[in-house]
Amino acid sequence: MSGSIFGKNFKVATWGESHGKALGAVVDGCPAGISLDEEMIQKYLDRRKPGQNEFSTMRDEADCVSILSGVFEGKTTGTPISMIIYNKDQHSKDYSNIKDIYRPGHADYGFDKKYGFRDYRGGGRSSGRETAGRVMAGAVALSALKELGINVTAFTSSLGGVKCDRAAISKENIFKSPIYMPDLKASGEAEELIKNAKGDLESLGGSIDCVVTGLPAGLGEPVFDKLDALLARACMSVGAVKGVEIGAGFNVANMKGSENNDNFVASNEAGIKLLEEGRLFDDKGNFISIKKETNNSGGILGGISDGDPIYISCAVKPTPSIASEQKTINRDGEETDIVIKGRHDPVIAPRAVVVVESMVGITLMDLLMTSATSKFSTLRDVFGN
Ligand SMILES: Cc1cc2nc3c(=O)[nH]c(=O)nc-3n(C[C@H](O)[C@H](O)[C@H](O)COP(=O)(O)O)c2cc1C
After folding, report:
1. Torsion angle of alpha carbons 55, 313, 307, 266, nearest 10°?
2. d(Cα 261, Cα 15) in Å, to the nearest integer?
3. Cα–Cα distances in Å, from 223 out to 163, 303, 370?
4. 100 C-alpha to center of ligand 1: Å?
5. The domain made up of 5-383 is a member of CATH 3.60.150.10
6. Whose CA is nearest to atom 20 of ligand 1?
7. Per-residue pLDDT at 55
């Protein structure tokens, strides 16, 4: 199986299966001198952990991270950073009844056809549990970005059709909501929907928004490694993410050129003030801009960051494992019914918030390192006499 390594300079490999002994990540190419310890990484992992509240699965995965290499006296050393968590609460027996049956909405059928074999215990590599590795590596990237004044903030922007009123969003409310939904009124409504969905043996979809502030202009590599293209790839690689928008996204299809174009200004004082206040959207729920009058571009033009905040939105599908009876086929191609046992999230979006944040962080860190060589003057500043 290939495809487990991401990035060109800041390279991330994740490894491990949901019901194997352990899972982890290796970051190769991380510069030396970044502050990092297990406690910092653990904070990110705890946001992804199941069983945090009644809105996520009760699987008690302790997810306690150990750093095996690449960090000395609280700083990265420039050598490969290897991180591990051991699987504890596995309940592999829960999956024995689906050994020869393909779960609807899962990768089972494709894995079997591709490899002639599949790890039926929770999906193996295709499990959402793989994203723990991304979060460990993401913590490294996000910590480095923070030291550079670049902040990546993701949150649940809708759930089960209940949308956040962007004007009501504040950064500090994200962690006041058990589902990371910073419009607390919308969060309350969505929490009720989740409880009902659980009772109905159903699951719900949602969306995750991510805002990047403090990113300078000039990040992104024309033409195949455009910033928007790489961010979309990074987010779409997260299981259950089915759509990614940048800035005005799909709504550009309904706009006129004069509406969509963002006029440049020397400096947008109102936007700068809002960002200083820690806001993510303006009073009308519009994207904040500091270099343009508006920010429909979502901070990216021609695949290169334009100095404004980056706006990304991801659509997340409902949890495919539902406890109600579904139709499917078995390995012999015969029709059968399936009832999925085990403990599953009624919604994926809240737990995937930190995964999106991580994938965005890893992508930006990788591109920052690539961009460091885009001008000869940078090399001259570092190596010239
Ligand atoms: C953080 C996270 C947790 C997930 N937890 C579950 C889960 O408990 N049950 C489930 O059926 N799917 C879960 N998934 C989704 C499946 O892994 C995913 O839908 C499945 O592998 C099929 O891939 P696709 O949706 O990308 O096509 C989770 C995904 C993520 C990102």
Report:
1. -110
2. 43
3. 35, 8, 14
4. 20
5. yes
6. 106
7. 67
Reduced 3-state DSSP string for 271-327:
HHHHHHCCCCECCCCCECCCCECCCCCCCEECCEECCCCEEEEEEECCCCCCCCCEE
Report field, pTM of the whole predicted structure over 0.90: yes
Distance CA 320, CA 340 (A): 10
Give 340 Cα–ligand 1 centroid separation in angstroms. Answer: 14
DSSP state of 330: B
Question: Which of 319, 322, 339, 347 to mutate for ligand 1's pocket (most ligand atoms within 8 Å of CB)?
Answer: 319
Rounded to whole angstroms, how far apart are CA atoms 174 and 83?
27
- H runs (alpha helix) in the chain: 38-48, 108-115, 131-147, 184-199, 227-236, 257-260, 269-276, 349-371, 376-383
pLDDT tens for residues 86-114?
A: 998 666 666 777 889 999 999 999 999 99
Q: What's the rounded Cα separation, in Å, for the pair 45 and 371?
A: 29
- The yes-or-no verdict on residue 31 having pLDDT over 70 is yes
Output the residue whose Cα is nearest ligand 1's atom 30: 128
Length of the chain: 385
Alpha carbon distance 145, 153 (integer Å): 12
Which residue matches tokens 């990047």?
A: 212
What is the predicted pLDDT for the residue at 341?
A: 80
The residue nearest atom 25 of ligand 1, judged by CA position, is: 240
- Residue 42 phi/psi, 5-degree rounding, is -60, -35
- Determine the Cα angle at 227 with ends 224 and 232, to 5°: 90
Write the CB contacts of 291 (distance below 8 Å, at least 6 apart in sequence).
217, 264, 265, 267, 268, 306, 307, 308
Instruction: Render pLDDT for 110-126 as a digit per residue (tens, 0 to 9).
Output: 999 999 988 888 888 99
Quote the ligand 1 centre to 111 CA distance (angstroms): 15
